[in-house]
Write a structure and sequence with these properties.
Elements: E1 35-47, E2 50-58, E3 64-70, H1 74-79, E4 92-99, E5 106-113, E6 119-120, H2 149-156, H3 185-189, E7 201-205, H4 212-215, H5 228-242, E8 268-273, E9 277-282, E10 288-292, E11 311-317, E12 320-326, E13 334-336, E14 339-340, E15 346-354, E16 359-367, E17 376-384, H6 397-400
Parallel strand pairs: 3-5, 10-11
Antiparallel strand pairs: 1-2, 1-4, 2-3, 4-5, 5-6, 7-8, 7-17, 8-9, 9-10, 11-12, 12-15, 13-14, 15-16, 16-17
């Protein structure tokens, strides 16, 4: 098989009915022409902000060439009726794409026909001349002489304020535009019973290092009975580690830690609590998590943006915050070193505030029948820390490649 790699799989901001090219990678596509390609799906990544489809297409010599095709924003694709269940690896589909200007095999999705014959945006109008030119390719034109910023603001003001999202902006979550946002003023202003406690602050993980053989420190001991698949992976990890080799930790490649590791990493965790949600930012890599408290329903599986920290919904049970998290990704995700986690993972956390509001006791219950039997339970602690801020921190892949043993 002849495989050609195409880089630059970045989000293109576009509406389903009017694909406006505004992202930096748009300059690589020819938005004046469209082509059709039929082939077999070999790769399907449906994860905010990326939609990427690998399509195996026979060329004129009978060899198979991989066309790596970038999607529109996930929100725009969903506006067409497309979701993560619309295609699967192995499906034969037809794609209508804007080709790469270089002539290499690759492009940007305009529409597609799934294996079941359903069409998505295939009857969209032909590209029109009003599409925006990328700013870097435009010569500067002076604005009207003497124009004030107030005049500029008036002429550029949206027709409706506040803006009501249609779920089509870059990075929008699948539910954006379908329900009240957690920080919508009306949502925040709704009457709710007062919360038993407020987690707002900076919290440091308690490593219990002198007792790590008892309690596992940042890991969870003891482990439950693992499935053969998970046990084989753990055995390979232990063997490699005993040889002094790094083995299979996605965070070394700058993947997010995922739950529950997000909650057990050393260093500070900033929490901001509102009546509708709790927002968390980690000192390590500024990883982000949100727990919704506004009573929203879970997203349907087809619309779910499976990720490393899942979809967390919380509620109050007396003086305890109960959080149930599902919707995890099934790749490059560990529950702890050497122990796999998958799409069936479900985590229930019970938060209690003790020691005069200075300690969070968090009881975890994990289930994942793909990787272990029954429930896996443990308790961890985070302590309030003062005179501490969470600052910018980044995981740079090229930096990590310079670490010893990589």
């Amino acid at each position: 098989m002849k495989r050609i790699a195409i880089s630059g799989f970045c989000l293109i901001v576009m509406a389903a009915s009017d694909s406006g090219f505004t992202h930096h990678s748009s300059v690589v596509f020819d938005n004046t022409a469209t082509i059709l390609k039929t082939g077999t799906v070999s790769e399907f990544i449906f994860r905010n902000p990326h939609l990427i489809i690998g399509l195996e297409v026979p060329d004129e010599n009978g060899e198979t060439v991989t066309w790596n095709i970038e999607g529109q924003s996930i929100a725009a694709m969903q506006a067409m009726g497309f979701d993560r269940n619309s295609i699967e690896i192995g499906d034969e589909i037809t794609m209508k794409i804007y080709p790469l200007r270089s002539g290499q095999p690759g492009g940007l999705v305009e529409g597609l026909i799934g294996a079941n014959g359903r069409a998505y945006n295939m009857d969209a109008p032909a590209p029109s001349a009003h599409r925006q030119t990328y700013p870097a390719l435009m010569e500067w034109v002076p604005p009207p002489e003497g124009e004030t910023w107030q005049e500029r603001e008036r002429k550029t003001r949206p027709t409706q304020l506040p803006v009501v999202s249609q779920g089509l902006a870059p990075g929008d979550a699948p539910a954006t535009g379908q329900m009240a946002g957690a920080l919508d003023p009306d949502n925040l202003a709704r009457e709710r019973p007062p919360a038993p406690f407020d987690l707002t602050g900076v919290w440091q993980f308690r490593g219990e290092d002198e007792w790590r053989a008892n309690y596992g420190s940042f890991e969870f001991k003891p482990k439950p009975r693992l499935t053969p698949k998970a046990q084989a992976y753990l055995d390979a990890y232990i063997e490699a580690s005993n040889r002094g080799e790094r083995f299979g930790d996605p965070t070394a490649l700058c993947y997010p830690p995922g739950m529950p590791r997000f909650m057990t990493r050393y260093g500070s965790l900033m929490m901001l609590q509102y009546p509708t949600a709790i927002y968390m930012v980690s000192r390590l890599n500024n990883d982000y998590r949100v727990i919704y408290l506004d009573g929203r329903e879970r997203l349907p599986d087809g619309q779910l943006d499976r990720n490393w920290h899942g979809e967390s919904l919380g509620s109050w049970d007396g003086d305890t915050l109960v959080v149930e998290t599902t919707g995890f990704i099934g790749e490059n995700h560990l529950i702890q070193a050497g122990v796999l986690a998958g799409e069936q993972l479900k985590i229930v956390e019970r938060y209690r505030m003790i020691n005069d509001g200075n300690t969070l006791a968090i009881e975890f219950t994990f289930t994942d029948p793909e990787h272990w039997e029954g429930e896996w339970k443990h308790v961890k602690f985070r302590d309030r820390v003062l005179r501490s801020d969470v600052r910018e921190a980044n995981c740079i892949y090229t930096d990590n490649q310079l670490l010893p043993g990589m």
